[in-house]
Specification:
Length: 550
Protein backbone atom coordinates (compact mmCIF):
# COMPACT_ATOMS: atom_id res chain seq x y z
CA UNK A 1 0.00 0.00 0.00
CA UNK A 2 1.71 3.18 -1.19
CA UNK A 3 -0.77 5.64 0.30
CA UNK A 4 -2.99 5.57 3.37
CA UNK A 5 -5.50 8.10 2.04
CA UNK A 6 -6.90 9.37 -1.25
CA UNK A 7 -8.64 12.51 -2.46
CA UNK A 8 -10.71 11.36 -5.43
CA UNK A 9 -11.14 14.72 -7.22
CA UNK A 10 -9.25 17.99 -6.71
CA UNK A 11 -12.52 19.79 -5.88
CA UNK A 12 -13.57 17.30 -3.17
CA UNK A 13 -13.59 18.31 0.50
CA UNK A 14 -13.41 14.85 2.05
CA UNK A 15 -10.61 12.29 2.05
CA UNK A 16 -10.98 8.50 1.72
CA UNK A 17 -9.13 6.19 4.10
CA UNK A 18 -7.43 3.38 2.16
CA UNK A 19 -6.61 1.53 5.37
CA UNK A 20 -7.80 1.66 8.98
CA UNK A 21 -6.68 4.90 10.64
CA UNK A 22 -6.53 5.60 14.38
CA UNK A 23 -7.63 8.59 16.43
CA UNK A 24 -4.84 11.20 16.83
CA UNK A 25 -2.97 9.70 13.86
CA UNK A 26 -1.49 12.32 11.56
CA UNK A 27 -1.78 11.68 7.83
CA UNK A 28 -0.23 13.65 5.00
CA UNK A 29 -1.78 14.39 1.62
CA UNK A 30 -0.72 16.92 -1.01
CA UNK A 31 1.51 18.71 1.45
CA UNK A 32 -1.21 19.06 4.08
CA UNK A 33 -1.37 17.40 7.51
CA UNK A 34 -4.56 16.05 9.04
CA UNK A 35 -4.90 14.95 12.65
CA UNK A 36 -7.75 12.48 12.99
CA UNK A 37 -10.24 13.26 15.75
CA UNK A 38 -11.55 9.67 15.79
CA UNK A 39 -10.90 6.25 14.30
CA UNK A 40 -11.57 6.13 10.56
CA UNK A 41 -12.19 2.68 9.10
CA UNK A 42 -10.85 1.80 5.66
CA UNK A 43 -13.25 2.91 2.88
CA UNK A 44 -14.75 5.67 5.06
CA UNK A 45 -14.09 9.40 4.77
CA UNK A 46 -12.99 12.30 6.96
CA UNK A 47 -13.39 16.08 6.69
CA UNK A 48 -10.64 18.21 5.15
CA UNK A 49 -11.68 21.21 7.23
CA UNK A 50 -14.35 22.21 9.75
CA UNK A 51 -17.89 21.84 8.45
CA UNK A 52 -20.81 23.84 9.82
CA UNK A 53 -24.41 22.64 9.77
CA UNK A 54 -25.57 22.88 6.16
CA UNK A 55 -22.07 22.68 4.67
CA UNK A 56 -21.93 20.85 1.35
CA UNK A 57 -20.05 17.54 1.17
CA UNK A 58 -18.40 16.91 -2.21
CA UNK A 59 -16.97 13.71 -3.68
CA UNK A 60 -16.16 12.95 -7.31
CA UNK A 61 -16.68 16.73 -7.78
CA UNK A 62 -20.43 16.37 -7.13
CA UNK A 63 -22.66 17.19 -4.17
CA UNK A 64 -23.19 13.97 -2.19
CA UNK A 65 -24.60 15.30 1.09
CA UNK A 66 -24.87 18.12 3.60
CA UNK A 67 -23.67 18.27 7.19
CA UNK A 68 -26.52 18.15 9.71
CA UNK A 69 -24.07 18.49 12.63
CA UNK A 70 -20.78 20.35 12.98
CA UNK A 71 -17.87 18.18 11.79
CA UNK A 72 -14.34 18.97 12.83
CA UNK A 73 -11.38 18.77 10.47
CA UNK A 74 -10.18 15.16 10.62
CA UNK A 75 -13.59 13.99 11.80
CA UNK A 76 -15.57 11.07 10.40
CA UNK A 77 -18.21 11.55 7.68
CA UNK A 78 -21.03 9.21 8.77
CA UNK A 79 -24.78 8.63 8.75
CA UNK A 80 -25.24 10.66 11.94
CA UNK A 81 -23.64 13.90 10.78
CA UNK A 82 -24.38 13.87 7.03
CA UNK A 83 -27.68 13.66 5.16
CA UNK A 84 -28.23 12.81 1.50
CA UNK A 85 -28.31 15.82 -0.85
CA UNK A 86 -27.91 16.30 -4.59
CA UNK A 87 -28.06 19.19 -7.02
CA UNK A 88 -31.04 19.60 -9.32
CA UNK A 89 -30.50 18.97 -13.02
CA UNK A 90 -31.91 20.36 -16.23
CA UNK A 91 -31.78 20.01 -19.98
CA UNK A 92 -29.06 22.18 -21.47
CA UNK A 93 -26.60 22.17 -24.34
CA UNK A 94 -24.90 18.81 -24.45
CA UNK A 95 -21.19 18.19 -24.20
CA UNK A 96 -20.91 14.91 -26.10
CA UNK A 97 -17.51 15.54 -27.69
CA UNK A 98 -15.21 12.68 -26.82
CA UNK A 99 -11.75 11.38 -27.51
CA UNK A 100 -11.47 7.59 -27.36
CA UNK A 101 -8.53 6.14 -25.42
CA UNK A 102 -5.55 4.51 -27.11
CA UNK A 103 -6.99 1.49 -28.94
CA UNK A 104 -3.77 0.22 -30.52
CA UNK A 105 -3.66 -2.87 -28.29
CA UNK A 106 -7.10 -4.03 -29.40
CA UNK A 107 -7.63 -2.85 -32.99
CA UNK A 108 -8.30 -5.77 -35.31
CA UNK A 109 -8.84 -8.16 -32.42
CA UNK A 110 -11.63 -10.74 -32.54
CA UNK A 111 -13.46 -13.16 -30.29
CA UNK A 112 -14.87 -16.56 -31.23
CA UNK A 113 -18.64 -16.47 -30.97
CA UNK A 114 -21.86 -17.97 -32.32
CA UNK A 115 -23.11 -16.06 -35.36
CA UNK A 116 -26.88 -15.59 -35.73
CA UNK A 117 -29.04 -14.92 -38.77
CA UNK A 118 -29.81 -11.35 -37.62
CA UNK A 119 -26.11 -10.43 -37.65
CA UNK A 120 -25.62 -10.61 -33.88
CA UNK A 121 -22.96 -12.82 -32.30
CA UNK A 122 -23.35 -14.79 -29.08
CA UNK A 123 -20.72 -15.44 -26.45
CA UNK A 124 -22.53 -18.71 -25.64
CA UNK A 125 -25.05 -21.10 -27.20
CA UNK A 126 -28.02 -22.00 -24.97
CA UNK A 127 -31.45 -23.53 -25.48
CA UNK A 128 -34.22 -21.94 -23.41
CA UNK A 129 -37.24 -23.56 -21.79
CA UNK A 130 -39.67 -20.86 -20.67
CA UNK A 131 -43.05 -20.76 -18.90
CA UNK A 132 -45.28 -18.02 -20.29
CA UNK A 133 -47.08 -18.01 -16.94
CA UNK A 134 -46.16 -19.21 -13.46
CA UNK A 135 -48.81 -21.97 -13.69
CA UNK A 136 -46.38 -23.86 -15.95
CA UNK A 137 -43.43 -23.73 -13.54
CA UNK A 138 -43.97 -27.31 -12.35
CA UNK A 139 -43.99 -28.60 -15.92
CA UNK A 140 -40.78 -26.69 -16.57
CA UNK A 141 -39.23 -28.48 -13.57
CA UNK A 142 -40.39 -31.81 -15.02
CA UNK A 143 -38.56 -30.98 -18.24
CA UNK A 144 -35.47 -29.99 -16.24
CA UNK A 145 -35.45 -33.38 -14.50
CA UNK A 146 -35.89 -35.16 -17.82
CA UNK A 147 -33.26 -33.27 -19.79
CA UNK A 148 -30.40 -31.85 -17.81
CA UNK A 149 -28.63 -34.88 -16.34
CA UNK A 150 -28.87 -37.27 -19.27
CA UNK A 151 -27.81 -34.62 -21.79
CA UNK A 152 -24.66 -33.95 -19.75
CA UNK A 153 -25.55 -30.51 -18.34
CA UNK A 154 -25.96 -31.39 -14.65
CA UNK A 155 -23.46 -29.89 -12.22
CA UNK A 156 -22.25 -32.31 -9.56
CA UNK A 157 -21.56 -30.79 -6.13
CA UNK A 158 -19.62 -32.07 -3.14
CA UNK A 159 -22.36 -31.38 -0.63
CA UNK A 160 -24.21 -34.64 -1.25
CA UNK A 161 -21.07 -36.50 -0.17
CA UNK A 162 -20.95 -34.39 2.98
CA UNK A 163 -24.60 -35.24 3.73
CA UNK A 164 -23.76 -38.93 3.36
CA UNK A 165 -20.90 -38.47 5.84
CA UNK A 166 -23.33 -36.93 8.35
CA UNK A 167 -25.77 -39.80 7.84
CA UNK A 168 -22.99 -42.28 8.61
CA UNK A 169 -22.08 -40.39 11.79
CA UNK A 170 -25.73 -40.34 12.88
CA UNK A 171 -26.13 -44.07 12.29
CA UNK A 172 -22.96 -44.64 14.29
CA UNK A 173 -24.66 -43.04 17.30
CA UNK A 174 -22.79 -39.73 17.31
CA UNK A 175 -24.17 -36.86 19.40
CA UNK A 176 -25.26 -33.43 18.20
CA UNK A 177 -21.96 -32.05 19.51
CA UNK A 178 -20.09 -34.67 17.48
CA UNK A 179 -22.06 -33.72 14.36
CA UNK A 180 -21.41 -30.00 14.79
CA UNK A 181 -17.69 -30.51 15.31
CA UNK A 182 -17.26 -32.99 12.46
CA UNK A 183 -14.70 -32.08 9.79
CA UNK A 184 -16.49 -32.50 6.48
CA UNK A 185 -13.96 -32.85 3.70
CA UNK A 186 -14.62 -31.14 0.40
CA UNK A 187 -14.21 -33.81 -2.24
CA UNK A 188 -13.75 -33.10 -5.91
CA UNK A 189 -16.32 -34.89 -8.05
CA UNK A 190 -16.91 -35.20 -11.75
CA UNK A 191 -18.40 -31.89 -12.88
CA UNK A 192 -20.76 -33.45 -15.39
CA UNK A 193 -21.23 -36.23 -17.90
CA UNK A 194 -19.94 -35.76 -21.41
CA UNK A 195 -22.29 -33.46 -23.32
CA UNK A 196 -24.38 -35.14 -25.98
CA UNK A 197 -24.39 -31.84 -27.89
CA UNK A 198 -20.86 -30.40 -27.46
CA UNK A 199 -21.62 -27.10 -29.22
CA UNK A 200 -24.57 -26.32 -26.93
CA UNK A 201 -23.55 -24.79 -23.62
CA UNK A 202 -26.69 -25.85 -21.81
CA UNK A 203 -30.46 -25.92 -21.47
CA UNK A 204 -31.72 -23.09 -19.27
CA UNK A 205 -35.09 -22.90 -17.52
CA UNK A 206 -36.38 -19.38 -16.87
CA UNK A 207 -38.81 -19.84 -13.98
CA UNK A 208 -40.73 -16.74 -12.86
CA UNK A 209 -43.90 -15.76 -10.96
CA UNK A 210 -45.51 -13.55 -13.64
CA UNK A 211 -47.78 -13.82 -16.63
CA UNK A 212 -51.12 -13.46 -14.87
CA UNK A 213 -52.75 -12.10 -11.73
CA UNK A 214 -50.90 -8.78 -11.88
CA UNK A 215 -51.39 -5.73 -14.06
CA UNK A 216 -51.65 -6.05 -17.82
CA UNK A 217 -48.62 -3.76 -18.01
CA UNK A 218 -46.61 -6.33 -16.04
CA UNK A 219 -47.62 -9.08 -18.46
CA UNK A 220 -46.71 -6.93 -21.45
CA UNK A 221 -43.31 -6.15 -19.92
CA UNK A 222 -42.80 -9.85 -19.16
CA UNK A 223 -43.51 -10.80 -22.78
CA UNK A 224 -41.07 -8.15 -23.94
CA UNK A 225 -38.40 -9.34 -21.54
CA UNK A 226 -38.87 -13.02 -22.50
CA UNK A 227 -38.75 -12.01 -26.17
CA UNK A 228 -35.43 -10.33 -25.41
CA UNK A 229 -34.06 -13.65 -24.18
CA UNK A 230 -35.50 -15.67 -27.07
CA UNK A 231 -34.00 -13.28 -29.65
CA UNK A 232 -30.75 -12.91 -27.69
CA UNK A 233 -27.53 -13.82 -29.54
CA UNK A 234 -26.61 -16.28 -26.77
CA UNK A 235 -29.85 -18.20 -27.40
CA UNK A 236 -30.13 -20.85 -30.15
CA UNK A 237 -33.88 -21.37 -29.76
CA UNK A 238 -36.61 -21.93 -27.20
CA UNK A 239 -39.41 -24.13 -25.95
CA UNK A 240 -42.29 -22.14 -24.43
CA UNK A 241 -45.04 -23.64 -22.27
CA UNK A 242 -48.31 -21.75 -22.04
CA UNK A 243 -51.42 -22.61 -20.05
CA UNK A 244 -53.74 -20.70 -22.36
CA UNK A 245 -55.96 -18.44 -20.27
CA UNK A 246 -53.32 -16.15 -18.77
CA UNK A 247 -52.76 -12.43 -19.37
CA UNK A 248 -49.45 -13.04 -21.13
CA UNK A 249 -50.85 -14.47 -24.35
CA UNK A 250 -48.86 -16.29 -27.02
CA UNK A 251 -49.81 -13.65 -29.58
CA UNK A 252 -48.32 -10.92 -27.40
CA UNK A 253 -45.05 -12.85 -27.04
CA UNK A 254 -44.85 -13.31 -30.81
CA UNK A 255 -45.49 -9.60 -31.36
CA UNK A 256 -42.67 -8.70 -28.96
CA UNK A 257 -40.34 -11.13 -30.76
CA UNK A 258 -41.20 -9.47 -34.08
CA UNK A 259 -40.39 -6.03 -32.59
CA UNK A 260 -36.89 -7.23 -31.83
CA UNK A 261 -36.31 -9.41 -34.89
CA UNK A 262 -38.73 -8.96 -37.79
CA UNK A 263 -37.14 -11.90 -39.65
CA UNK A 264 -36.88 -14.21 -36.64
CA UNK A 265 -35.45 -17.56 -37.83
CA UNK A 266 -34.56 -19.50 -34.68
CA UNK A 267 -36.44 -22.71 -33.84
CA UNK A 268 -39.27 -21.81 -31.46
CA UNK A 269 -41.72 -24.36 -30.08
CA UNK A 270 -44.81 -23.11 -28.23
CA UNK A 271 -47.10 -25.60 -26.48
CA UNK A 272 -50.41 -24.62 -24.88
CA UNK A 273 -51.60 -27.04 -22.22
CA UNK A 274 -55.32 -26.23 -22.42
CA UNK A 275 -55.25 -27.00 -26.16
CA UNK A 276 -53.16 -30.16 -25.95
CA UNK A 277 -54.90 -31.78 -23.01
CA UNK A 278 -53.01 -34.19 -20.77
CA UNK A 279 -49.73 -33.32 -19.13
CA UNK A 280 -48.13 -36.50 -20.45
CA UNK A 281 -49.00 -35.57 -24.03
CA UNK A 282 -47.63 -32.05 -23.66
CA UNK A 283 -44.45 -33.31 -21.99
CA UNK A 284 -43.88 -35.82 -24.78
CA UNK A 285 -44.25 -33.11 -27.41
CA UNK A 286 -42.04 -30.69 -25.46
CA UNK A 287 -39.29 -33.28 -25.06
CA UNK A 288 -39.29 -34.25 -28.75
CA UNK A 289 -39.32 -30.66 -29.96
CA UNK A 290 -36.63 -29.54 -27.51
CA UNK A 291 -34.43 -32.47 -28.52
CA UNK A 292 -34.91 -31.58 -32.20
CA UNK A 293 -34.04 -27.96 -31.40
CA UNK A 294 -30.86 -29.03 -29.64
CA UNK A 295 -29.85 -31.03 -32.71
CA UNK A 296 -30.17 -27.84 -34.77
CA UNK A 297 -28.37 -25.71 -32.17
CA UNK A 298 -25.45 -28.15 -32.12
CA UNK A 299 -24.74 -27.39 -35.78
CA UNK A 300 -23.55 -23.90 -34.87
CA UNK A 301 -19.88 -23.54 -33.96
CA UNK A 302 -17.75 -20.65 -32.72
CA UNK A 303 -16.32 -18.42 -35.44
CA UNK A 304 -14.27 -15.20 -35.28
CA UNK A 305 -16.15 -11.93 -34.83
CA UNK A 306 -14.99 -8.33 -34.36
CA UNK A 307 -15.09 -6.86 -30.85
CA UNK A 308 -17.78 -4.48 -32.09
CA UNK A 309 -20.18 -7.42 -31.77
CA UNK A 310 -19.78 -7.41 -27.98
CA UNK A 311 -22.51 -5.82 -25.90
CA UNK A 312 -21.43 -5.57 -22.28
CA UNK A 313 -23.79 -4.96 -19.39
CA UNK A 314 -22.38 -3.04 -16.43
CA UNK A 315 -23.53 -4.00 -12.94
CA UNK A 316 -22.52 -3.57 -9.31
CA UNK A 317 -23.77 -5.27 -6.17
CA UNK A 318 -22.60 -5.49 -2.59
CA UNK A 319 -20.74 -2.23 -3.24
CA UNK A 320 -18.25 -0.73 -0.78
CA UNK A 321 -16.28 2.45 -0.28
CA UNK A 322 -13.65 1.27 -2.77
CA UNK A 323 -16.10 0.50 -5.60
CA UNK A 324 -15.98 4.01 -7.03
CA UNK A 325 -12.18 4.25 -6.94
CA UNK A 326 -11.08 0.82 -8.16
CA UNK A 327 -13.41 -1.64 -9.90
CA UNK A 328 -16.02 0.82 -11.23
CA UNK A 329 -13.61 3.26 -12.92
CA UNK A 330 -11.61 0.26 -14.17
CA UNK A 331 -14.59 -1.17 -16.06
CA UNK A 332 -15.41 2.40 -17.05
CA UNK A 333 -12.11 2.41 -18.92
CA UNK A 334 -12.96 -1.03 -20.34
CA UNK A 335 -16.25 0.50 -21.52
CA UNK A 336 -14.45 3.37 -23.23
CA UNK A 337 -12.13 0.92 -24.99
CA UNK A 338 -14.98 -1.23 -26.25
CA UNK A 339 -17.02 1.77 -27.39
CA UNK A 340 -13.99 3.15 -29.20
CA UNK A 341 -13.84 -0.21 -31.02
CA UNK A 342 -17.48 0.09 -32.10
CA UNK A 343 -18.99 -2.05 -29.36
CA UNK A 344 -21.93 -1.42 -27.05
CA UNK A 345 -22.16 -0.90 -23.30
CA UNK A 346 -25.29 -0.80 -21.12
CA UNK A 347 -25.35 1.29 -17.92
CA UNK A 348 -28.49 0.65 -15.87
CA UNK A 349 -29.65 0.87 -12.22
CA UNK A 350 -31.31 4.31 -12.38
CA UNK A 351 -31.68 4.66 -8.57
CA UNK A 352 -27.88 4.47 -8.48
CA UNK A 353 -27.42 7.41 -10.85
CA UNK A 354 -28.90 9.83 -8.32
CA UNK A 355 -26.74 12.96 -8.19
CA UNK A 356 -24.95 12.43 -11.51
CA UNK A 357 -28.00 13.02 -13.72
CA UNK A 358 -26.68 16.36 -14.99
CA UNK A 359 -23.44 14.83 -16.24
CA UNK A 360 -25.26 11.99 -18.00
CA UNK A 361 -27.90 14.34 -19.44
CA UNK A 362 -25.14 16.58 -20.80
CA UNK A 363 -23.45 13.56 -22.39
CA UNK A 364 -26.54 12.53 -24.40
CA UNK A 365 -25.96 12.93 -28.14
CA UNK A 366 -29.68 13.45 -28.75
CA UNK A 367 -31.74 16.06 -26.92
CA UNK A 368 -34.69 13.65 -27.11
CA UNK A 369 -32.63 11.04 -25.25
CA UNK A 370 -31.63 13.63 -22.66
CA UNK A 371 -35.30 14.50 -22.14
CA UNK A 372 -36.27 10.83 -21.91
CA UNK A 373 -33.55 10.12 -19.34
CA UNK A 374 -34.69 13.10 -17.27
CA UNK A 375 -38.31 11.94 -17.46
CA UNK A 376 -37.54 8.35 -16.54
CA UNK A 377 -35.38 9.30 -13.56
CA UNK A 378 -37.81 11.87 -12.16
CA UNK A 379 -40.85 9.63 -12.66
CA UNK A 380 -39.10 6.68 -11.01
CA UNK A 381 -37.97 8.74 -8.02
CA UNK A 382 -41.40 10.37 -7.60
CA UNK A 383 -43.03 6.94 -7.64
CA UNK A 384 -40.62 5.75 -4.95
CA UNK A 385 -41.25 8.84 -2.83
CA UNK A 386 -45.00 8.29 -3.10
CA UNK A 387 -44.63 5.06 -1.13
CA UNK A 388 -42.16 6.55 1.34
CA UNK A 389 -38.96 5.19 -0.19
CA UNK A 390 -37.10 7.61 -2.48
CA UNK A 391 -33.70 7.09 -4.07
CA UNK A 392 -32.09 8.40 -0.86
CA UNK A 393 -33.09 5.09 0.77
CA UNK A 394 -31.17 3.01 -1.77
CA UNK A 395 -27.97 2.18 0.20
CA UNK A 396 -28.17 -1.20 1.94
CA UNK A 397 -26.86 -1.81 5.48
CA UNK A 398 -23.79 -3.43 3.93
CA UNK A 399 -23.18 -0.38 1.73
CA UNK A 400 -23.41 1.95 4.71
CA UNK A 401 -21.15 -0.18 6.89
CA UNK A 402 -18.48 -0.04 4.21
CA UNK A 403 -18.55 3.69 3.58
CA UNK A 404 -21.44 4.40 1.18
CA UNK A 405 -23.46 6.45 3.66
CA UNK A 406 -25.68 8.35 1.19
CA UNK A 407 -27.22 7.36 -2.13
CA UNK A 408 -25.34 10.20 -3.81
CA UNK A 409 -21.98 8.81 -2.64
CA UNK A 410 -22.99 5.36 -3.86
CA UNK A 411 -24.30 6.73 -7.16
CA UNK A 412 -21.32 8.94 -7.92
CA UNK A 413 -19.09 5.88 -7.67
CA UNK A 414 -21.52 3.58 -9.48
CA UNK A 415 -21.74 5.91 -12.48
CA UNK A 416 -17.99 5.49 -13.05
CA UNK A 417 -18.83 2.13 -14.64
CA UNK A 418 -20.08 4.04 -17.69
CA UNK A 419 -16.72 5.63 -18.49
CA UNK A 420 -16.59 8.96 -20.29
CA UNK A 421 -18.09 8.38 -23.75
CA UNK A 422 -21.23 10.08 -25.12
CA UNK A 423 -24.63 8.52 -24.38
CA UNK A 424 -25.93 7.28 -27.73
CA UNK A 425 -29.31 5.94 -26.56
CA UNK A 426 -31.70 5.89 -23.60
CA UNK A 427 -34.09 2.95 -23.24
CA UNK A 428 -36.97 2.07 -20.98
CA UNK A 429 -37.29 -1.50 -19.71
CA UNK A 430 -37.49 -3.98 -21.48
CA UNK A 431 -36.48 -2.36 -24.79
CA UNK A 432 -33.67 -3.77 -26.93
CA UNK A 433 -30.41 -1.96 -27.61
CA UNK A 434 -30.15 -1.06 -31.30
CA UNK A 435 -27.28 1.47 -31.34
CA UNK A 436 -23.63 0.97 -30.54
CA UNK A 437 -22.02 3.13 -27.87
CA UNK A 438 -23.14 3.85 -24.31
CA UNK A 439 -26.80 3.07 -23.60
CA UNK A 440 -28.68 4.08 -20.45
CA UNK A 441 -31.32 1.46 -19.56
CA UNK A 442 -33.98 2.12 -16.93
CA UNK A 443 -33.83 -0.68 -14.35
CA UNK A 444 -33.91 -0.94 -10.56
CA UNK A 445 -30.75 -1.04 -8.48
CA UNK A 446 -31.67 -4.60 -7.44
CA UNK A 447 -28.73 -6.65 -8.72
CA UNK A 448 -30.66 -9.58 -10.18
CA UNK A 449 -33.55 -7.56 -11.63
CA UNK A 450 -31.06 -5.22 -13.29
CA UNK A 451 -28.79 -7.97 -14.63
CA UNK A 452 -31.84 -9.86 -15.93
CA UNK A 453 -32.96 -6.68 -17.72
CA UNK A 454 -29.55 -5.86 -19.21
CA UNK A 455 -29.33 -9.31 -20.76
CA UNK A 456 -32.90 -9.02 -22.07
CA UNK A 457 -31.82 -5.80 -23.80
CA UNK A 458 -28.94 -7.56 -25.52
CA UNK A 459 -25.92 -7.77 -23.21
CA UNK A 460 -24.00 -10.90 -24.24
CA UNK A 461 -21.56 -10.50 -21.35
CA UNK A 462 -21.83 -8.69 -18.00
CA UNK A 463 -19.08 -7.05 -15.92
CA UNK A 464 -20.22 -7.05 -12.27
CA UNK A 465 -18.25 -5.23 -9.58
CA UNK A 466 -18.57 -6.03 -5.88
CA UNK A 467 -16.88 -4.87 -2.70
CA UNK A 468 -18.64 -7.17 -0.25
CA UNK A 469 -19.16 -10.27 -2.42
CA UNK A 470 -22.16 -11.67 -4.24
CA UNK A 471 -22.69 -14.91 -6.18
CA UNK A 472 -25.07 -13.33 -8.73
CA UNK A 473 -25.10 -14.76 -12.24
CA UNK A 474 -27.42 -15.09 -15.25
CA UNK A 475 -28.82 -18.10 -17.12
CA UNK A 476 -27.45 -17.24 -20.56
CA UNK A 477 -24.83 -14.47 -20.28
CA UNK A 478 -21.50 -14.97 -18.49
CA UNK A 479 -21.26 -12.59 -15.51
CA UNK A 480 -17.66 -11.66 -14.73
CA UNK A 481 -17.36 -10.85 -11.00
CA UNK A 482 -14.78 -8.18 -10.17
CA UNK A 483 -13.60 -7.48 -6.61
CA UNK A 484 -12.90 -3.91 -5.53
CA UNK A 485 -10.36 -5.02 -2.92
CA UNK A 486 -7.82 -7.81 -2.49
CA UNK A 487 -9.20 -8.96 0.86
CA UNK A 488 -12.52 -9.87 -0.76
CA UNK A 489 -10.83 -11.48 -3.77
CA UNK A 490 -8.81 -13.79 -1.52
CA UNK A 491 -11.66 -14.48 0.90
CA UNK A 492 -14.32 -15.39 -1.70
CA UNK A 493 -12.19 -16.77 -4.52
CA UNK A 494 -14.86 -19.32 -5.44
CA UNK A 495 -17.26 -16.61 -6.67
CA UNK A 496 -14.89 -13.82 -7.78
CA UNK A 497 -13.05 -13.79 -11.13
CA UNK A 498 -10.92 -10.63 -11.15
CA UNK A 499 -9.24 -8.47 -8.51
CA UNK A 500 -8.89 -4.68 -8.81
CA UNK A 501 -7.61 -4.23 -5.27
CA UNK A 502 -4.31 -3.75 -7.08
CA UNK A 503 -5.47 -0.19 -7.80
CA UNK A 504 -6.03 0.55 -4.10
CA UNK A 505 -2.61 -0.91 -3.30
CA UNK A 506 -0.89 1.25 -5.90
CA UNK A 507 0.27 -1.72 -7.99
CA UNK A 508 -1.78 -0.94 -11.08
CA UNK A 509 -3.42 2.08 -12.70
CA UNK A 510 -7.11 2.28 -13.58
CA UNK A 511 -6.16 2.16 -17.26
CA UNK A 512 -4.00 -0.94 -16.82
CA UNK A 513 -6.79 -2.70 -14.92
CA UNK A 514 -9.33 -1.70 -17.58
CA UNK A 515 -7.20 -3.19 -20.33
CA UNK A 516 -6.67 -6.36 -18.29
CA UNK A 517 -10.42 -6.71 -17.81
CA UNK A 518 -11.08 -6.34 -21.54
CA UNK A 519 -8.47 -9.03 -22.29
CA UNK A 520 -10.25 -11.31 -19.81
CA UNK A 521 -13.65 -10.48 -21.31
CA UNK A 522 -12.45 -11.45 -24.78
CA UNK A 523 -11.39 -14.87 -23.49
CA UNK A 524 -14.72 -15.32 -21.70
CA UNK A 525 -16.62 -14.30 -24.84
CA UNK A 526 -14.61 -16.88 -26.82
CA UNK A 527 -15.46 -19.69 -24.41
CA UNK A 528 -11.84 -20.00 -23.25
CA UNK A 529 -12.63 -19.14 -19.62
CA UNK A 530 -15.58 -20.38 -17.59
CA UNK A 531 -16.43 -17.68 -15.05
CA UNK A 532 -17.29 -18.54 -11.46
CA UNK A 533 -21.00 -17.76 -11.85
CA UNK A 534 -21.28 -20.26 -14.72
CA UNK A 535 -19.17 -22.88 -12.96
CA UNK A 536 -21.36 -22.55 -9.86
CA UNK A 537 -24.61 -22.76 -11.85
CA UNK A 538 -25.69 -19.30 -10.67
CA UNK A 539 -28.71 -18.79 -12.93
CA UNK A 540 -30.39 -15.81 -11.23
CA UNK A 541 -33.43 -14.58 -13.14
CA UNK A 542 -35.97 -12.05 -11.79
CA UNK A 543 -38.16 -10.09 -14.22
CA UNK A 544 -38.89 -6.55 -13.02
CA UNK A 545 -42.51 -5.76 -12.28
CA UNK A 546 -42.65 -2.04 -12.87
CA UNK A 547 -43.35 -1.21 -9.24
CA UNK A 548 -40.95 0.46 -6.83
CA UNK A 549 -37.77 -1.59 -6.58
CA UNK A 550 -34.54 0.04 -5.42
Amino acid sequence: MKNKVLKIHPNDNVIVALTDLKKDEIVELDGQSYTLTEDIAAKHKFAMYDFEVGSEIKMYDVLVGKANQPIAKGGSINIFNVKHAVNSFELRENHAEWQAPDLSGFEGRTFNGFHRADGSVGTANYWLVIPLVFCENRNIEVLREALVDDLGYARKHTYQNQTNDLISLYKAGKTIEDILSADLQSQETETQKQKLFPNVDGVKFLLHDGGCGGTRQDSTALCGMLAGYITHPNCAGATVLSLGCQNAQVGELKAEIAKRDANFQKPLYILEQQNIGTESEMMAQALKQTFAGLMQANQNTRQPAPLSKLTIGLECGGSDGFSGISANPAIGYTSDLLIGLGGTVILAEFPELCGVEQELTDRCVSRDDAALFSHLVKTYNDRAKAVGSGFDMNPSPGNIKDGLITDAIKSAGAAKKGGTSPVTSVLDYPEKVTKSGLCLLCTPGNDVESTTAEVASGANLVLFTTGLGTPTGNPIAPVVKIATNSKLFNKMSDIIDINTGTIIEGEESIEQAGERILEYAIKVASGEIEVCAVRNGQDDFIPWKRGVSL
